[in-house]
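Review box. Two proteins, two foldings.
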Amino acid sequence: MRLYLELAKKAAQRQLAYRQANLAGLMTNLFFGALRAYVLIALYGARPQSGGYTLTAAITYTGLTQAILRAVQIFGWQDLMKTVRTGDIVSDLAKPFDYYLFWLAQDLGADVIRLFVRGVPIMLAYSMITPLVWPSDVGAALAFVISLLLAMLVSFAWRFCVNIVALWTTDALGFARLAYTVGMFFSGFLVPVTFFPAWLKTVANWTWFPSIIEMPVEIWLGILSGPAALNALIQQAVWLTVLVVIGRLMLAAGTRKLVIQGG
């Protein structure tokens, strides 16, 4: 366990070292968050409520999704598949540690820093410009924290599965781009899944993608509360278990016959 804590610590330190990149990312998140908020303001111009969201809740949704965007890395991650291409995966697999936890520790270490250097400033900036919806009580805030942690774990488990496909193909980048685009859409990042047509909402809810974005945000907003919030946490935990098992099975199958380019 100490090894993985050290890996997480080193990943956090690396993330902190890129001060200019963190600042540029923060400015980018704020800019696109503002664009998304103005689109919703225009949408709500003719109606006080849509899909169960008030305008204030919808604006909060844009702020919070921008705040957690880099922590859940919905846009993608290719670090693991790059090690397949370079051959570094051979030395990683030969080392005496759990390969899955090796990558998970680094991912979580960097993600926690992204939450603080991007997420917190984004929510503070939003709160100074417009009214926001905040968790109604300590219980709701705690449920959000648990849900966000599960979202980060589900996201990693999904991205691990996408990356491990590189063990079967010479270039998995195209597959990854398609997979991450689908995930970004069905997670509710662009618009809440609640806004989808009924049939598309059903499709989305049969996937793990809402567990990454929509569920933690709706717990924050109070749209999911009490038994509904508990049910959301259970769904996230179930999807996490399923994806971890799939990822580990893919890893075991892929490493039986591995072709390395470069290394």
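Next protein.
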Amino acid sequence: MSDFVVVIPARFSSERLPGKPLRLIAGLPMLQHVWQRAMESDAQDVVIATDDDRIQEAAEGFGATVCMTLDSHRSGTERIAEVADILSWPDDRIVINLQGDEPLMPPEVICACAALLDDPVADMATLASPLLSRDNFHDQNIVKVVLDDAGFALYFSRAAIPYSRGDESDQLALSTAMHHHGIYGYRCSVLRRLVNAEPSALERCEKLEQLRALSIGLKIKVGCPKLRPGPGVDTEHDLAAVDELMRKKDIG
């Protein structure tokens, strides 16, 4: 596996969970848990990218490297691209985009995402696991991905894909769709190409920036990790559930 770095984009504002990166889970800011998981991986460097002084102060307080970025970015990908330029990373540098709301992302899973880019056909890498329930299949907050026979993404959607016509095809649809996890890997050359492209119609419809990559013809390799990541945090309910889970497991 090639060397890689991890960047954790973090912004203070959130429609569903204001101040999300600094909300406490098991007594620590959520962002600190994410950073700790990244530091436990094989990453050569871990950087938190933000535009907010409160996040910078907190992150530096627990020992993280912080890169301050513009407040005009529309996505975490754009924020990471600015970090790559500020730090003069070369086009062949592999970057893992680890979302700041994934405190239960195992370190070995971060490494598994980076390893997918050993495939010379892959422009990007991400991870997905089998759906856990029929409710997950129909939950618009759970992003689904369907793959081609070589393990590359055909499409991502908040909708229940593929469509089931009932009877035998119902179980087939449930077993074909995968639960997408919030982690991406790419080389800086691809990262720069992504941010220089305009959001596609598909991206604007679904509010999923990975659809921009598919729209411009990039190949996204999707791996199924042996160790399933825990749930991410988008809402107050998620925050409480993850807090309870981490306290039970004594994760810190």
